[in-house]
Amino acid sequence: MACSGAFLLNSTVFFHTLETSPRPDDLAGRGKKGTMKPSTLNLFEYTDYRAFLKDRLEELKNGDGRYSYRFLANRLGLSSKSHLKMVVDGSRHLSEPLASKLADLLCLNARETDFFMELVRFAKARNDRQKREILARLRRKSRFLDVHRVELERLDYLNDDLTLTLREMAALKDFSEDPQWIASRYRGRAGKKKIEQALERLLEMGLLARNETGKLEAVHAHQDVSGDIANVALRSFYKRMFQKASASLEISREERHLGGYTMTLSQDAYVQVTEILQDAVTKIRRVVDEDDAPENVYQMVFALFPLTRSNGDGGED
Predict the structure, then answer these.
(1) Which residues 6+ apart lie within 8 Å of 194 measured at CB?
(2) In whole angstroms, what is the distance from residue 35 CA to residue 263 CA?
(3) I need a labelling partner for 101 at 20 to 30 A (CA). Which of 108, 143, 174, 202 fits?
């Protein structure tokens, strides 16, 4: 098949065509429309390869109604014509060989292909360690950094307990940005340099700002974090916070509150309970917003999880 493109030389636009060796069945019925147009999509804006595939196919169909999951499956020599549809819908993953063939079919250049393959590996990663390793490789790609800088800053923010706590400490009625004062109040280890770096990072991220008197204040009352990148940090965040919740058993009962309830639930009742919990969080936010003299920083973390498998769930392979 042919992939069209363009490059600049002394302000003049030159068009070029890269030819790959087509299979005989690729040549059948092809005329001028057989060339797949280059995409206007920026692949580096994506963190989910499935979302890119869905958008790319929609882009192709808008230009040529022949393009469909079945059409691409035929081009890839797949016996299952619904395989790509199941991939985009989330019930299947691309194998690396198939992902490589698809990148070639979609006319991705070398840098785009490398990035696309990393997105496939990221989606297929079996644990947090693998996801963090792949994300570290993605962060070394300048075009990825340019697009996802804010998301990556939030990832670093969630991964640093001192930075998380410092942002909230700024709302304490007796807050001082003196590192010695901060270290005396922080339940953890933090030296002067680390505290100063954390304050500087919060200012750069716009999560702290100075008011008219020069005092540091938190910007934006609440941080809602979501997305594929944030999910990596959130999983690590929850693990750390539940560990801290366990460690809080050693703190005076007057300073912490722990509770639990073992229950049986239908799926409908489970949904109702999660809605009640979310409603409780909303009410707690209102209490926090109306508190004009906070004295301490607290972490609230809760969980609702099954102790038994659903009927018909055979468990992990």
Answers:
(1) 162
(2) 60
(3) 143
